[in-house]
Amino acid sequence: MRAAVLHEIGQDKLEVLDDVEAVGFGPGRVRIRVRATGLCHSDLSAMGGVLPQPAPFVPGHEGAGEVLEVGEGVTRVKPGDRVVVCWLPACGACPACKRGQTELCLAGFMNAGTPNFRRPGGDVFGFAGTGTFAEEVVVDAGCAVPIPDDVPFDIAALIGCGVTTGLGAALNTADVEAGSSIAVIGCGGVGISAIQGARLKGAAEIVAVDPVASRREAALSFGATKAVSPDELPDAKQLVTGGEGFDYVFEVVGRSATARTAYDNTRRGGTLVVVGAGALDDFLQLNMFELFFDEKRILPSMYGGGDVLRSYERTIALWRAGRIDLSSLITHRVALTEINEALDQMRTGAALRTCIEI
User: Fold this and answer.
1) Which of 130, 179, 185, 356 could be a cystine partner for 209, CB 3.0 to 4.6 Å?
2) What's the rounded mean pLDDT across residues 129-140?
3) Which long-range contacts does 110-117 make (Cβ < 8 Å, 24+ apart)?
């Protein structure tokens, strides 16, 4: 089968090969024919070594498709079912799951150390234990989440990561208060989803911050009340909050520099929500006095900060009701053979989300 492979960490191009085999099928496992997958910035981060991932590997973790085969003991799905790929399944038995913090379950991360694919030259891993830039993938049964037949594969793929992460940051982690002021730094697919979540919660002012003009324009159509470049943020802070700072600031880039900017633009007693996934060696510096004196809450948001399966259901319900716009998030579509075009679209900021149709 075909799959897009990164041979070594640090390479900026993927090679689409037709000699890749999905492996690992057996009891408790599901084989999926991938139909659509989104390109998330985390894929680029893994390719560049920002996020730890063994190589060679097949990127992709935001996917949807149909079940081809189920292993012994699998009862939740059957061949022919439409599913979204969940890269962070909950085991239901660990301390985090028992506390109700299923997004902190480590079972899914354990999958990342087991090869998902094989080539004549040896084993190939799947990013985040999945690897959806492939025609087929074999995953644990918990990674195959059934979806209703009326949810298109491209929409389902977005729900698998970016939309769930952004919406959840506003709805679950921040629990945005109606009438509040918001700034979102980084307005790709995840940032736009956070904007939609803040709008749903009744935020009065939502300022989108991004260096790319097309993304700023898009943010306005998704619910932002103002869109500015990073250089214009101080003026927006003065205009919207009288210089006090925003009630909530969402950092959706994953860099200490933007996290520091987000902290500085959060009002005293306000909330900084860290959504972007950053590097192990990139440190955010805060002094102990400001931590004490400003009493700002710093809330990391892992995969939307809530029960993933419930979040999927909620997102589908909101989409069906027309309360959120998911189709407009997909600004570009490519075939798997054009995957490197999608990478360029992400790097330049031209795309909110590129859908790879497989």
Assistant:
1) 185
2) 96
3) 111/139, 111/140, 111/143, 112/53, 112/54, 113/54, 114/24, 115/23, 115/24, 116/22, 116/23, 116/24, 116/58, 117/3, 117/20, 117/21, 117/22, 117/23, 117/58
Give, to the nearest 10 degrees, the angle between helix 189-200 and helix 213-221: 30
Tell whether the model's pLDDT for residue 148 goes beyond 80. yes
Does residue 159 contact residue 84 with C-beta atoms inside 8 Å?
yes
- Give the type of residue at 151: V
Q: What is the mean pLDDT of residues 321-326?
A: 97
Q: Given the structure tokens 């793929």, which residue do they identify?
A: 157
Close Cβ partners of 147 (under 8 Å, ≥ 6 residues apart): 64, 82, 83, 84, 156, 159, 312, 316
CA 340, 160, 44 angle in degrees (round to 5)? Answer: 30
Q: Is 144 helix (H, G, I), strand (E, B) or coil?
A: strand
Instruction: Map tokens 């996290």 to a residue.
Output: 259
Question: CA gyration radius for the chain?
Answer: 20
The token pair at 125 is 């891993």
Q: What does the pLDDT look like over 51-66, one tens digit per residue?
A: 999 999 999 999 999 9
Task: Give the count of alpha carbons within 13 A of 153, CB side only.
Answer: 19
Residue 108 has pLDDT above 90, yes or no: no
- For residue 10, count CB atoms less than 10 angstroms from its CB and return exposed for 0-12, middle for 13-18, buried for 19 or more: exposed
Which two three-digit tokens encode residue 281? Answer: 């060696």
Amino acid in the structure at residue 41: H
Cis peptide upstream of residue 56 (ω within 30 degrees of 0): yes
